[in-house]
Structures are given as structure tokens and as C-alpha cells.
Specification:
By secondary structure, this protein is α/β, with parallel strands linked by helices. It contains 13 helices and 8 strands. The relative contact order is 0.12.
């Protein structure tokens, strides 16, 4: 295939960009002003990161220009976040033009470094002496575990005949899946509401990392000081992210936390064992290791089939193998591929489960939220702690 044909094939699959003739900063404000002017209730899902922080500041501008102050916001406390995060949340909580609800759900959060007990509980009453920090006086307890309950009509009732919107700091430049999701919606507002009748609003979806930091710098907005710490320790601007450190998304920040806050890190390690190993070895510690001369199929059998993994992971692995091989045999007479190296995986099998290698990697930590093996049931907290309850919906952190 010549260069011209390759270029034509590439263009056929690209989504053309639309020029708005307005900068992304002003466009975000106009999107929010439209909601405020129509009388809808707008609530910022505020995590303490840069994206949700910019959303909150933009809402303050839009609400002020439309006479809709104070700005509603909600923050769910997760106990363990990078130092500087909750201090930033507290500063925003005490802003006169911000109505911030600080909630604690006591929900389990993934500990992706522990295969035996993959959950730890926020402000667990059974481990009160190990809490990384005390419960803040501003916080209120809620009973619902699922993250969808952050913004609900019972907590933020909209005016009669109006809608409730949850503003989230989603940006499409961070993930192609986020971009595809937004394109499928056809708008910065989700096409359909969730089960509570709440729509998600993504006003900064077209902002880049540079746009976010330029907005913060030009307007002298407050932000989480942990970003400065990561920058001084050598983090690339595209890697400046604040996420729960015990989840895969937060694994890159662990080495910075270990360097910058060693005493705080000791407390976190006592609370959530395994984080120090992850800080030292990165994602390598949550992936299976294939021995010299061993096929990936043999690696699967050694790790999962010979009693070398927790039983709950083995049970889920057996379902995955049974379903995947049965599906593969229905459309192919070839053996199930051992690896996906350079496209060697089966192109018709379940997305990311197209080889023995992918099965081994996807199931090593159990895939609690069924993100890789989407046909598996999600792992409910009740499995690991009697009386812990269920997610009450799609599993989340």
C-alpha cells in the first residue's frame, strides 16, 4: 500500500475538528452561563485536582455574571490523598461565594497492590488508630457507597421544571475513550440523564494541559500545591495528576509522595500495605511475571491454576478462560493466541482479552470493577467484609 492510500485510509477514520471562533476559556464560561441563565441547578464535582478546580472557578465567574451566586459544589472525602489536596478543599469550602458540601461515605477504595484484600475502607471504624488524618469538622456522613450519589436531587433539589447538572472536569485530551464518549453524546452535556435524572456537564472538554495552567496563572487562582511538588521533582506537565494513590491512576504519583513526604508515606503504608513496593517498582508490581522459556498459557496455569492466587481471583479467572475460549472456538479453528505482540492476538475476541498474555495481565489483580472482562459481575464489598453492603449500582471508588 503506497503512502497516498495510507493517508486516505487514516483520514477516513479521523473525526474532523470544528472551529468555534472563540477561545476555550470564554467558550467554557458561555456553556456554564447558558445553564445558569436557564435556571437550572449546577453542582461542581470537586475533587481537589486542577481540572475540577478550574471548573469551580469558571462557575464562580458564570454564576456572578448571571446573578446565581453562591456556586454549589460537592466533595467526597477519600481520607488518603496527596498532602495539599484537602487543605485546598478546605480553602474553597470557606469561600463566601461557594456552597460546598463535604461528604464522607466510608466507601471501599481499590488497593491495587493487595491481591488478598483489594479494598480498604475510608475512615474505617475498625482501624481508627491507623487513619492517615482525622475526620474534618466540615464533613457530613452519607450512607450511599456509589459515587453517583454525590450529586442527587435530594441533596441539591432543582427548581420546579428545571434540571440538575453535575459539572465534571473531563478533558478529551487525556484519553481517546473520553473523546469518543463525548463525541457520541454530540454535546458537552450528556445526552441522557443518569438514574437520578442528573445530567453531566463537561465545560472544559476541549482544554489542553497548557490551557488549564494558563487559566490558573493568568487569573491567579488557588490550586493544589502538590502539583508544584511533582513539578519540582521532575514530573512532566502531562503527568501532573492527582488521583487516589492506591489506584492504578495514582501509581505514578507514589514515587513523588515517597520523596516529598516520607513520614506521611509511612502512615499511608501502615494503613494500606503494598504502596511502598509500588512506589519503588511502579506498575511492574501489579503485573504477572512470565518465567524464562514459559509460554503465557503456562504462566496462566502456574499463577491461577496451581493455587498461587487468592481463591476469589481464581474463581473469576476460570470464568474468563471458559468464556473466552468458548467464544474464540466459535469463530476460529486456530489455537487461542499466546500473545498479542505486534497484532498477534485474535482480532475478534473480547476487546482486551485476545490472548493468554492479556488474560494473565487483566486478571492478576482480579479486575474488581470488571473493566477488562466486562461480562464478569463486579466484586461487591460484601465479599471481603460481612455487612459492608453493596455498591448500589455500577461499582466505583
Amino acid at each position: 500500500m503506497n503512502i497516498k492510500k495510507i493517508e486516505l485510509k487514516r483520514r477516513r477514520w479521523e473525526m474532523p475538528k470544528m472551529t468555534l471562533n472563540i477561545n476555550v476559556f470564554d467558550a467554557a464560561i458561555e456553556r456554564l452561563k447558558a445553564l445558569y441563565e436557564d435556571g437550572h441547578r449546577v453542582v461542581v464535582s470537586f475533587s481537589g485536582g486542577k481540572d475540577s478546580g478550574v471548573c469551580l472557578e469558571l462557575c464562580r465567574i458564570a454564576a456572578k455574571e448571571t446573578g446565581r451566586l453562591p456556586v454549589d459544589a460537592v466533595h467526597r472525602d477519600e481520607e488518603i490523598m496527596a498532602p495539599g489536596t484537602f487543605e485546598y478543599v478546605r480553602r474553597m469550602y470557606h469561600k463566601k461565594d461557594v456552597n460546598l458540601r463535604w461528604i464522607i461515605a466510608g466507601q471501599p477504595i481499590i488497593n491495587c497492590f493487595n491481591r488478598k484484600l483489594p479494598y480498604w475502607w475510608v475512615f474505617d471504624p475498625n482501624e481508627k488508630d491507623k487513619w492517615v488524618r482525622p475526620i474534618p469538622p466540615e464533613a457530613e456522613w452519607v450512607k450511599e457507597l456509589n459515587i453517583e450519589y454525590m450529586t442527587i436531587p435530594e441533596r441539591f433539589p432543582p427548581a420546579e421544571g428545571k434540571k440538575l447538572f453535575a459539572v465534571i472536569g473531563l478533558r478529551t485530551c487525556e484519553s481517546r475513550f473520553r473523546k469518543m464518549g463525548l463525541i457520541s453524546s454530540g454535546n458537552y452535556i450528556t445526552r441522557n440523564p443518569n438514574r437520578f435524572g442528573v445530567y453531566n456537564c463537561r465545560p472544559i472538554y476541549d482544554m489542553s494541559d497548557d490551557d488549564v495552567w494558563k487559566a490558573i496563572y493568568d487569573n491567579k487562582w488557588d490550586y493544589n500545591e502538590f502539583y508544584d511538588v511533582m513539578h519540582r521533582l521532575g514530573a512532566n506537565k502531562n503527568r501532573l495528576r492527582v488521583a487516589p494513590p492506591t489506584m492504578t491512576a495514582g501509581i505514578e504519583s507514589l514515587k513523588f509522595l515517597l520523596q516529598a513526604y516520607p513520614k506521611w508515606f509511612d502512615k499511608m503504608e501502615e494503613r494500606v500495605p503494598g504502596v511502598r513496593t509500588a512506589a519503588q517498582y511502579g506498575k511492574r508490581c501489579i503485573l504477572p511475571i512470565r518465567r524464562l522459556g514459559e509460554t503465557w498459557k503456562d504462566c496462566n496455569m502456574r499463577i491461577y491454576g496451581n493455587g498461587n492466587s487468592p481463591q476469589w481471583i481464581v474463581d473469576r479467572w476460570k470464568i474468563v478462560v471458559e468464556r473466552t475460549l468458548a467464544y474464540h472456538n466459535r469463530h476460529s479453528t486456530l489455537p487461542f493466541p499466546d500473545t498479542d505482540f505486534r497484532g498477534a492476538g485474535c482480532p475478534r475476541c473480547y476487546g482486551t482479552l485476545n490472548s493468554w498474555k492479556k488474560i494473565a495481565e487483566s486478571m492478576y489483580m482480579g479486575d474488581c470493577f470488571s473493566q477488562k472482562a466486562t461480562f464478569l459481575p463486579q466484586v461487591e464489598p460484601e465479599l471481603f467484609r460481612e455487612g459492608a453492603g453493596t455498591w448500589g449500582g455500577k461499582a466505583s471508588w
